[in-house]
Write the structure tokens for this entry.
Amino acid sequence: MRLPRPAALAVCAAPVLALLLTAVLAPLPFVLAQPGLTADVLGSRDGKSVISITGAPTRPTSGQLRMTTIVATGPSESVGLPTLVDNWFRSDRAVMPRELVYPTGGSDKEIERHNLEEMAKSQSTATQAALGYLHEDPAKVKVALNLADVGGPSAGLLFSLGIVDKLRGDGSGGDLTGGRSVAGTGTIDADGEVGAVGGVSLKTQAAKRDGASVFLVPKAECGDAQAELPEGMRLIPVTSLTDAVSSLRALNRGGPVPSC
């Protein structure tokens, strides 16, 4: 039996509309991220120094070294197409694949525990990198880091720089920061090599919001950092702790400084 044209069109359109409705309502494998907190590793948290050192003389510091974070929707939160579209075009939001933010899977509690474990490992590695750079004996010089409730490994570089600044400064009696508010991100290994982290365009916004004027970024992520770079923020690419220290020294002395 042949259907009238309007009825035939309606019958054909029904599956398409059903698919579109499913796409709109179904949760998608993405998370929404935005700029998170920053913390000065040279300062205090809850009345306690973020970096405490024993076994070697430390020096007073000025300026700030701010580690940066992003805040993302949880792994079990549903994010639908309308929400993704609404946030896609916002410069202060990012739509990221869930597996990039939560590569280990698991429940919210398991992922939170994993992130805190990663932060603890990062702090230990950052200490190794800094003491190795300074040729200090880790058996004699002990470092305690009081920021274990912030998950993830991306503050490693900033922790290492904070230890260097407290123990040696710029090597000439001055501060590594030059009195500035310097922010940044990057993992670090025991040899002082800096790794990429993701979310850098959001982290530069968090840094600007909290008063930083210089941002240290893993060199491989220069392009991402430039995407939504706040006005007046200076990007310095780094591949190692040595790179970062040398660039900050050059900045303080008015010498040539690498840029993205």
Q: What stands out?
A: Residues 1-26 have pLDDT under 50 and may be disordered. The radius of gyration is 23 Å. The longest helix spans residues 108-134.
